[in-house]
Every structure is written in C-alpha cells, then in structure tokens.
C-alpha cells in the first residue's frame, strides 16, 4: 500500500490523485503536478494532471499510466480502475458494477459513508427518482412525476429528493431546464451489510409487497422458489445468482434504444434453517 495515501479511504479517484500528489510532494519536493505529467509521458502538457483533478475524462490508456506511476499493484490497481469506472461510467449498470467491485475490494472494516449518502439511501424513492430522470423530463414542477411514480410519493418529498441529489452533484439542469443525472458517482462506498444498505433493502422488500398487491397494469413477475440442496449446490446457486445480476447489467449496458421505463429487481437468497443448529443446511 502506498505510504502517501491509502487508496481504500477514497471513493473518488480525482480526490485520491490530488491527495496522493500533495502527500508525496511534501516528502519529495520535486514531485510537482508538472513532474506527474512528465512521469505520465506528457512532458509538453503541464496542465493535464490539474485538468483531471478538475473533471477531465481519463482514457483507459491514461488510467494504466496513473496506476504505473503511483505503483499500484493487485487489488489496489483494481480498486483504482473501479473508482474511475464508478466516476466516469456512462450508464447506471456500469456504475453499479464498479460500485460492487469497490465494495468487494475495500479493505477498510468501517463503512465510508457521508451524511448525505445516509439520507439518499434512507428513502427508497431517491434512487428511483434518479433512474426516472434518465427516461422522463422533470423540472422544478414535479406534479407529473408525482402522478407517475409507483408507489406514490408526495410532491414535497420529490422536491426534497431533487434538492438532495443536486447537493450531492448527482443531477443538474440541462439546457432545457430539466433535471438530469450528471453520471457522477454516489459519494459512498460501504460494506454490503452496513445499516444504511440494510435499511434500503428493507424498504425495497416493502416495495415488492406493494407491487404484488397492486391492481395496476405495471409490469411485474413475482416468483417464489424454496428448495433443499447440499452445501456444494448452495454455492452453485449463489454463483448463478451473481451470474444473473451480471447478465442484467450487460443487457442494460448494451441497450441502444432510448430508455422509457424504470424497472426494479429484488433478488433474495436466504436460508430457512439457522446455521448454528444445522451447519450443513441451506
């Protein structure tokens, strides 16, 4: 791990780069931002590093050069790659996949969560509204959104949701005055079982219940399947579930048509027997 900055303490690669450079220059005075450009193979472009820190898009080639200059190896290099994808991903599935990779690779035992992120995940409709903005034009007048979103959400809460996402730099108005995703990352990486995520998942379970009981014409496909398997087969089932999630991400990422719908998937795999009572049970 680098002595100048612990990469696992960061969720935004630009902030990591800036703090790494500053910390290293404090020890090595010659390691300026200009020198960083030289080491990246850009001796005639002194402003490149500064441009990246302030939002310039990083190509795959330059991402590899950053990894080489900093000396990142193994999981640290993979974490940096995921941070870049999390920030620059052009679609929600790409950003979600990068987010999952960051959670798997993060070595910190404590969640890296800012207060706004707690608020964001604290209400299910925030992420739903975020997705809806990709398929629907929404201005400060949220009356139409309030009529269409399912389950129903009050206009007051919808306005609060937009204000929160603007504060988090997740959305901004386009030239027509409609709120649209900025494609920037959610400023958080946390362990998959943190209280914040568990609370969000509980709300999603309630959404499934409402969808099941609804008499509307919205798309839905509810399936329940209980089975008995060996521990070896259980692992295969878990791998199949992960493969399914990857397939969904790929389908959405490859979708070339303009999105017009927002779908929600809850996938639950859990044991009906206490592990301490039957360690071989599923």
Notes on the protein architecture:
A hairpin with a 5-residue loop joins β2 and β3. This protein has helices spanning 13-27, 33-39, 48-53, 60-70, 74-88, 92-105, 115-122, 124-132, 143-148, 155-167, 195-213, 231-254, and strands at residues 112-113, 171-173, 179-181, 188-189. The two termini are 38 Å apart. The strands form 2 sheets. Strands 1-4 form a two-stranded antiparallel sheet. It has a two-stranded antiparallel sheet with strand order 2-3. By secondary structure, the protein is mostly helical. The chain folds into 3 domains: 7-105; 109-221, Arc Repressor Mutant, subunit A; 223-282. It contains 12 helices and 4 strands.
Topology:
Blueprint: H1 13-27, H2 33-39, H3 48-53, H4 60-70, H5 74-88, H6 92-105, E1 112-113, H7 115-122, H8 124-132, H9 143-148, H10 155-167, E2 171-173, E3 179-181, E4 188-189, H11 195-213, H12 231-254
Antiparallel strand pairs: 1-4, 2-3
Helix pairs in contact: 5-6, 6-12, 8-10
Mean pLDDT: 80
Total helical segments: 12
Percent helix: 40-55%
Give the overall shape, derived from the CA principal axes: globular
The level-1 CATH class of the largest domain: Mainly Alpha
Radius of gyration: 22 Å
CATH architecture annotation of the largest domain: Orthogonal Bundle
The major pleated sheet works out as: 2 strands, antiparallel
The figure for the number of domains is: 3
* DSSP E strands, number: 4
H/E element order: HHHHHHEHHHHEEEHH
Q: pLDDT below 50 for ≥5 consecutive residues: which ranges?
A: 109-113, 184-195, 277-282
Q: Which strands sit side by side, in order, in the main sheet?
A: 1-4
CATH topology tier name of the largest domain: Arc Repressor Mutant, subunit A
Note the beta-strand portion.
under 5%
